[in-house]
Here is the input.
Amino acid sequence: MANQDSQSTPPKDKSAFGIFMHELARGSLIVPILAIITGLLLGGLIVAVTTDQVYTAWSRSPLEAIGVGINAALRSYSALFNGAIGNPERIADALASGEAAALRRAFNPFFESLIKSVPYIFAGLAVALGFRAGLFNIGAEGQLFMGAVASVYVGFAVKGLPAIIHLPLALGAGALGGAIWGFIPGWLKAKTGGHEVINTIMMNYIAFRLSEYLLRGPLQRPDTTNPISPFIETTAQLPRFFESPIRFHLGFFIALAAAYGVYWLLFKTRLGFELRTVGANPNAARYAGMNILVITVLAMSLSGALAGMAGANEVLGVNYTLAPAFSSGYGFDSIALALIGRSHPVGVVLAALLFGTLRNGALQMQIAANVPVDIISVMQALILAFIAAPAIIRTIYRLRAPQQQEDGLHVRGWGG
Amino acid sequence: MSTLSPTMKSSAEYTGGGRRRVMGVVFLALAAAIWLLFARTTQGEMVTTFTLNPGGSQANFPNLEFITLPVLHAIAFVCALLGGYQLVRGFGTRTNAILGLVAALFIFAFLSWVASGTSLNLAGLLRATLIRAVPITLGALSGILCERAGVVNIAIEGMMLTGAMVAAIFGSLYGLWVGLLAGVLAGALLAVVHAIFSIKYKTDQIVSGTVINIFSIGMSSFISAKYLAANRQLNNPGIFPDIQIPGLAEIPFIGPILFSHNVFFFSMLLFLALLHFGLFFTRWGLRLRSVGEHPKAADTLGINVFKTRYMAVILGGMMAGFGGAYFTLGSVGRFDDVMTAGRGFIGLAAMIFGNWNPFGAFGAGLLFGFADMLAARLAILGVRVASEFLLMAPYIATMIVLAGVVGRGQAPAADGQPYEKEGH
Amino acid sequence: MPPVLELKTITKRFPGVLANDRIDLSLERGEIHALLGENGAGKTTLMNILYGLYQPDEGEIFINGRQVQIHSPTDAINAGIGMVHQHFMLIPVFTVTENVMLGSESLKMGGILDRRAATERIRQISSAYGLEVDPDDYVRDLPVGVQQRVEIIKLLYREADILILDEPTAVLTPQEADELFKIMHSLTERGKSIIFITHKLREVLDIADRITVIRRGKVVGSTTPKQANQSKLAAMMVGREVDLSVHKRAFTPGADVLTVQNLKVGDDRGQIAVDDVSFTVRAGEVLGIAGVQGNGQTELVEALTGLRPALDGSVRLLNEDVTRANPRRITELGTAHIPEDRQRDGLVLSFPVADNLVLNTYYQRPFSKGAVLQQATIAKVAEERVNSFDIRTPSVDTSAASLSGGNQQKVIVARELSRPVKLVVASQPTRGLDVGSIEYIHGRLIESRDNGGAVLLVSSELDEIMQLSDRIAVIYRGKIVDVLSAQDASKEKVGLLMAGVVRTATAKKASLGVKPKPKAKASSKTKTSAKKAAQKKKPSRAAKTTRRRKDS
Here is the structure.
């Protein structure tokens, strides 16, 4: 994916949206879209075959069993929709009544999905930025943890500051925490050639253990034996736009701004040019006088900072505290969504909205249709599989092979 | 033709010298650590007591008792001596063995320090270390099989997790051996997916591994939540009993540590020996390694690169599945969500640490297993070191190895590169 | 008796290319048959078909008169065909024995390797054919010439009768090549037959029994060394009388631009690749560095352009010491660098042509203002350069990957020479290019020289060196063995120097010199000797202006 911005007939309109529309027209988005559809279909299939009623129906007639299965899948997906976007009837009722509280309750699922997308956007941008610079950052999860740790610490330990200072400080601390966790493997890569995939995996586990230690020790809430931090000061909280229960907060817009920032950085600036050159051909970058060491370290640090922001947003916008299980694998999922979004900020935001929506809806699906939320991970894996091996999708849908060589992401070998 | 210029030799010596010096400094640092961290905090007359019978063993072996301080001084002195010799002259090819010796001495000093003024069941610790090394080593062997053939496998974790779950279900339904077989086959199935992706579709192998990891975590948690939580009888396979090797198990001290384990431990030893022999002494291994080093060369000699890689990856998946089954059928007796808890990744680390060699990986597995074991028991031992830091040790150690500080390992040359057959 | 091998109407198409077009070829027992052609003429493709690596689209293969189907290397090996590939197919971390036996292993007890038996056979083969090698050595420790012997032993181990040697001399020094020729003769004496692929004319005339010339995938003719000579073969290879001589202005060297003193550079494996090298390049001259590939040229160029640290010595560019300068600084001082491997170093293939045209100036005004790229300006300037350098591309937004090799190289040349340039470092600038592009690039290099630039031309193509250079420095095993003025240099003389056979008096003295001389002294010495050389050749050089070929 690292170099897909460079096909033979690029768009004339070089705005993000223009590129997106161009890609859409060019057909390179067909595979991702079909991959998502196929993933959802297969998810439905799994729901169907894990529904007990299907098997009782099977003894009567296979056709009936199929009907029951389809029904079960549809019921699950409608629960997912209700949970992710909102129940259309309730929305209609709420609109009819015009009552503010009812409206908030009706639209809450939609905003909840947006909130769930925020860490995905940040973490996805982190991985995408790494890809562009030729770096495979598997460590977003660890960076996210360190970002959360840093921002929660600033959030509760620093007292007496006005929000206008405290909040940016806490966010900055989150970015810094992640950046440090990205800097280390970046530096090791640039200086010793140690492969960033292994190092970021290792850094993930170091981050988990370190945050466990901190939550049992220095950062533990005084009045409890659970590994959980104190609540952050209200001055460090990301402001919310609506009253309870809607938790929609400023972080969403910060995430969008970050996406634009990454886009601008990658495609409009000198540093972005250098970053992409190092990613596409490090030898040529060296030849062109670019400082690969600095750029690699910078790219990993920026990537870590973005992942750290994901953690900071969860802590400062949603939970107001830190517990070990606060991340539902955003960092790992972000690898998938960066690839689905073709390492382009626009694609990443869209994929993140999709993932956030699915994750949020899945909760409702679990309650209403007794389908465990983990089905979402399975679907994500399937979608990523189809994106990673487009030939499968092409075979299923009998698409023609592309004229040009498929964009492939290839990590350079291990160790040396 | 004497194309070997004299400069080549001197440069080779130079790089050797770098490693020699670093190693010497490492030895000296360990000696200093023994002095500063352990000896200085030990009172003169305190006595270390090591129990040499693991719990439940009939054999009666006297305790090992000694006054702590002189032993610490002696160990530190030996380490310093070795470090000095290494700095000045160097141990050459025996450096790694000496490193192992120094590490062992350091660990012994650490334990002596911990047990000073109290008693410590040394035999129990060693036994626990071996047991904890089992899944790590099996994971590493899985990695070695794949990567020696040129396919990077970061999906060991996922394969283990799936293997663990499938083994638990089938073990509960049809007995332990069927469960074990099912776990192995589950690993193989995921390996087939990994192989098809990375060999046939030439997908990036890290991406393919990530797919399998995400899928495995999702699927096992899904099935666990959907079925296992409600139906206890599906998740109660029991565990394999320990096998006493007749005769050997009665040897005092050594017997209970080495010769009284369940099937997983003995299988691991067997696989270890088989894989080492297979890789380096058979046609199978020569061809497998050639495919990981220079697939095109292998191809020109009539070796089927794709077939060899498929075979290696599937065997690797079976190994990981076997290692996964250990968690449910060899250790815990039921499946818990995400119960492998990163052991697959530690296995990957052990593989790198062990330089892609089975016995090296086993050594790393022992070291990491020891850290794992110690972390679990620190609280019991009453040591004021946070266990989390010990648990970090394997990861940090791997990063240090990868950075080449103590001599860089040598990954197979074509590791991670899809093979493209030309002209077809 | 039928020929050992006969190929009939072999045809192979790749997307957009007809690599082999109805090729016929026959090989007699005990014969060395040279397959001659330019890079990209289709020689290697043909041999890969014969070895089962590619499948032909049409055509038949006969061995000893019987038709055979070769679907894989295994089939080829079974048919008695063996091939030494241009890039060795050896595994560095394996021993010689393991490399040789791989694929046809000696076994005991079913699947266990019998190393001793294999080693024994290797020893037999190596003594029978004079292929000296220690079977227990690791291949990574062996010099290239020995590695090639291992490759040949691999074939003999499989009892191949037909040996294909693909460009075997490309990586060898002339002595190693002579050694190889001896081995080839000893092979044919024992009844083996050899197909010898090359694009070097001299070798063909020296060693072949028969010569077949291929051009653009077609056989253009067959001959014998007796009937042929170099120019005739060259004409067959390129399809027209070759006269690559270039027109240049009289030689009027100016001030020193690049001064290299006692330079020492290591290679990737920590060996000394450039050993105590000193030379000067002046404004308005082309200094050619001649040498067989792999004698330190790559490392020398990398050290001069800041891509590789020097171990010792100094490099001065104009009046600045750039020994430890980074590539950017050296570029900013007015150095143009045409790298040896254009796809590896010179281009980002996935980037548009426009971006590649500003690859090392993107950060300067007007291409950037502050931190922001000026994409409109970049595109505009790119258009201009595409036009003025005749780069054939659909648009400046096209990715560099989709251009032909010649146009890719023109992108690099356009980028490097559109800046105000004081020094041009051109490393193998025309390797693998078509004649038209070669001519164009030669013209541009000479233009830089004529406009007062200093040009350092590194090439393993002796013809290129002879045509373009005002002075010729010969590099052999990392040392400059001699510097000749163009009119003193004959092909034979330079060739002998490249082979390390002759050493002139001055070079001998330099190499015997016990200690490197103090820097100031050494520099003055190089300068004076260079000046002397220049004075000597000035008049005759001016008189001798060569005609430029017009038929493009």
User: Anything to note?
Assistant: Chain C has three domains: 5-238, 249-334+421-538, 342-419. Residues 163 and 531 of chain C are 51 Å apart (CA to CA). Residues 5-238 of chain C form a domain with the Rossmann fold fold (CATH 3.40.50.300).
